[in-house]
Amino acid sequence: MARSNNSNQLLVPGAQQALEQMKYEIAQEFGVKLGADTTSRANGSVGGEITKRLVAMAQQQLGGTQQTF
């Protein structure tokens, strides 16, 4: 199994669990089975959607435009 070389540190305790849950929910919505056997394009689409939603959530909290999914 591949070892993660991600050096990013989360600033909010417990955020990892929420991000993991979001990842699997999005993967299910997209019909992607996450894992080593899945193409990087499919896995990347999930990561891209996570980023898109997190940015939208931050904008909403900062008083920006509201967006629904």
UniProtKB/TrEMBL annotation:
Highest taxon listed in the record's lineage: Bacteria
Protein keywords: DNA-binding
GO biological process: DNA topological change
InterPro entries on file: SASP_alpha/beta-type, SASP_alpha/beta-type_CS, SASP_DNA-binding, SASP_sf_alpha/beta
Pfam families, sorted: SASP
DNA-binding as UniProt keyword: yes
Entry GO MF terms: double-stranded DNA binding
Stretch forming the signal peptide: none
Entry keyword annotation includes Nucleotide-binding: no
Family membership noted in the UniProt record: Belongs to the alpha/beta-type SASP family.
Purpose of the protein: SASP are bound to spore DNA. They are double-stranded DNA-binding proteins that cause DNA to change to an a-like conformation. They protect the DNA backbone from chemical and enzymatic cleavage and are thus involved in dormant spore's high resistance to UV light.
PANTHER family: SMALL, ACID-SOLUBLE SPORE PROTEIN A
Protein name: Putative small acid-soluble spore protein
Top-level taxonomy: Bacteria, Bacillati, Bacillota, Bacilli, Bacillales
